């Protein structure tokens, strides 16, 4: 089981503390739960300063970071005065190649530890300017859901933390396991990292005006040659209105969104079936094996064959060996 140390750095929003447990805790493989989570802090066993009115007590100390496979930092809404033991623990974890992630203002903790120097990073859209000023050696990417730079990951606030955790599951166990975890937590299917954080246009006031039904209809027909006109016809709006509403609700154009869904469907087929590449391409709506290869290399940086090989279960680690850390490093 992959062990995750959730490091709480006060002050912290109580919602942020619950995100890893809610999402990673819902991930299951054929062997059972995929993750063991340990809530830890510099001062275990004592109530921590929170934003949200609920008490948070971490039962584990920072020694949990040393024994964990991955680390997720939540909190430090104050963005200053971070305890040195926390920074030392994060530096040590990153120094031995452990995956270190941060939700929202946790990026400031990683910055204080020097883990963002020379790396791409993000945080809540209202704080990206502050992050760039505080840590000029970081390459701050504004207005995206999350950023992956090697073994260091950062996300925007609130719901973007859910997206980050779904990404971790998908990276470790594949698209199908991530999709099941999303369904169990009643979350939307995993969104692409570069989707914008902010929705500038107001969403429709009436639930029926949303395009959710059209998106669900399209997902059931990914293997068909859907066009912009097909989507607009189902939604009973003009193509211009469809495009505007799609961007307001998802941050993408209808065809961009459709391409993301098709690539994710192809990932599931590559992970869970032995179908030839041309059949994977047809069933996911990507047309041909050449088109499938083009989109995988462009989006994932690897061929479909390499993705399938990296997704296969690895043999058990011999007794006394290190615990498995998700997929081989070459697939990250």
Short description:
It contains 14 helices and 14 strands.
Written description of the protein model:
- The structure is a single chain.
- By secondary structure, this protein is of the alpha/beta class.
- It folds into 2 domains: about 1-185, Class I glutamine amidotransferase (GATase) domain (Rossmann fold); about 200-315, Arc Repressor Mutant, subunit A, CATH 1.10.10.60.
- Helices cover about 45% and strands about 15% of the residues.
- It is built from 14 helices and 14 strands.
- The protein has helices spanning about 15-25, 65, 85-95, 105-110, 130-135, 160-175, 175-185, 210-220, 230-235, 240-250, 255-270, 275-285, 290-300, 305-310; strands at about 1-10, 10-15, 30, 30-35, 35-40, 45-50, 50, 55, 70-75, 100-105, 120, 140, 145-150, 150-155.
- A 6-stranded mixed β-sheet has the order 5-1-9-10-14-13, sandwiched between helices. Strands 2-7 form a two-stranded parallel sheet.
- Strand 3 (about 30) and strand 4 form a beta hairpin.
- Helix 1 (about 15-25) runs parallel beside helix 6 (about 160-175) and helix 12 (about 275-285) crosses helix 13.
- The longest helix is centred in the last third of the chain and has 19 residues, at about 255-270.
- It is globular, with a radius of gyration of 21 Å.
- It starts with a strand and ends in a 21-residue tail after the last helix.
- Mean pLDDT is about 85; it is low at about 200-210 and about 315-330.
